[in-house]
Amino acid sequence: MFSETPTSNLDIFYDEYRFRDMEFDELLTSFRGVLTHPGEAIARVILIGPPGSGKSFILDSFQDRIKNGRIINNESNIQLNCVNIDCQTIDSSKTVVYEIIRKIDPFFRASLDECQTAELQYILADILHEREEALIIIFDNIDALVAKEPEEVNSLIYGFQRFSEGKTKDEPNLFSQILVAHDIGFLQDLDSSVFRRVVTDVIPFEPYDAEQTFQLLSDFVKKNIRKKIAEETVWFIAMISQGNMRLAIELLERANLISLKNHEILILPEHVRDANKTLTDFKVTEQMIKDLPAGEKLLLLSIARRFQSNSKAFINFLDLPSLFFSICEEYDMLNIARYFSDVLNNLETLSLISIHNVQKEVIITLSDISAYELGQNLEDEYKQKRRDNPYFT
Asked: Residues 165, 292: one domain?
């Protein structure tokens, strides 16, 4: 039972978890026995999902509520604690246990070279016995550690499980586990025997859709961003982050810094494009643009000019044919205008532009290169061609 007062045993956990209520309820259900009777029940859950899908958000809230709610078994006086270890930043299973101990007892010191993982686990158990605590361990990015040393991770998980196997009725269950990974594939490198006797639930997290990302990002803007930003620009970030809320926030914060550096009043789509160039794996190079056929270059120049002139994030698809026709006429290449559909499809295939359906409209975005940079390079190229081959001689 909980000490100190919520009206219901699990009241401190109930709240609005926007778009992740179902996942939080599943986590709560899996740990219901541990939360109501610390030291008696144990649980293990695997959370899987791509980066930015809400796993950390849910776990941070879960951990904070355990720490702030003082969950105590009134019969045994055992209190529940929870620690989070990011396995991606740790080089060994032994170090994982050492860092867990340090989170429980910041004054603990030991030479890792002289210790074994199992020895450290027993030291941790002794500390918990003395403090009268049971522990939920969150192994964030466990798949990164499994990739480094699968056999040691087998021993690590089994070692914590061992404290609940063969114990007498007077000994508490000390360790429950939450394993967090991008997908379930990491289990292939683990021995199935390490999961015996403990029921393991799997909770999947799907990426946020664009509407959900937009709403979450809008709330973040209200709380954390002082600069003005148009709703369309927030939508733009929501689209190009593709359901990764962590990426969306990083794009917003970097765009904000670029806006401050440029002494702009607003956070503009161009700032987002500049920020995205440093975050995406896909890089638009000058050589890539230079090697494009003439039609693709002209259509990109049409798009870049429109973005430069009105500071918008999107172009309506219906406006694009006339823009393309005009620029083909400007550069005396009207014969290319008839291939608009082929040119557009090729640019999308090359990931130089993106096409989206939003509220019954088709829109075009440019996200991986600055519109100013793109437009400047193409304008310079075509000005040089015009000087080399003037229309009238």
From this structure: no
Distances (CA, A) of 75 to 72, 227, 303: 9, 54, 70
Domain contains 45: yes
What is the CATH number for 147? 3.40.50.300
Residues 44 and 147 in one domain: yes
Q: What is the pTM of this model?
A: 0.83
Co-location of 237 and 290 in the same domain: no
Residue 1 lies in a domain: no
The series of mean pLDDT values per 10 residues for the chain, 393 residues long, is 38 62 93 93 94 92 88 92 95 95 93 91 94 96 94 92 72 92 92 79 94 93 91 93 93 94 92 88 81 94 88 90 93 92 93 84 86 88 71 44
| Cβ-contact 15, 28 below 8 angstroms | no
Which of 279, 302, 330 is where one domain is finished?
279
Q: Length of the chain in residues, anyone?
A: 393
Which of 173, 204, 235 terminates a domain? The answer is 204
**Predicted pLDDT of residue 392:** 41
CATH number at residue 342: 1.10.10.10
In a domain, 321, yes or no: yes
Residues 24 and 92 in one domain: yes
314 and 257 fall within a common domain = no
- Print the SS3 string covering the chain: CCCCCCCCCCHHHCCCCCCCHHHHHHHHHHCHHHHHCCCCCCCEEEEECCCCCCHHHHHHHHHHHHHHHCCEECCCCEEEEEEEEEHHHCCCHHHHHHHHHHHHCCCCCCCHHHCCHHHHHHHHHHHHHHHCEEEEEEEECHHHHHHHCHHHHHHHHHHHHHCCCCCCCCCCCCEEEEEEECCHHHHHHCCHHHHCCCCEEEEECCCCCHHHHHHHHHHHHHHHCCCEECHHHHHHHHHHCCCCHHHHHHHHHHHHHHHHHCCCCEECHHHHHHHHHHHCCCCCCHHHHHCCCHHHHHHHHHHHHHHHHHCCCCEEHHHHHHHHHHHHHHCCCHHHHCCHHHHHHHHHHCCCCEEEEECCEEEEECCCCCHHHHHHHHHHHHHHHHHHCCCCC
On whether both 176 and 104 belong to a single domain, the answer is yes
Range of the domain at 237: 210-279
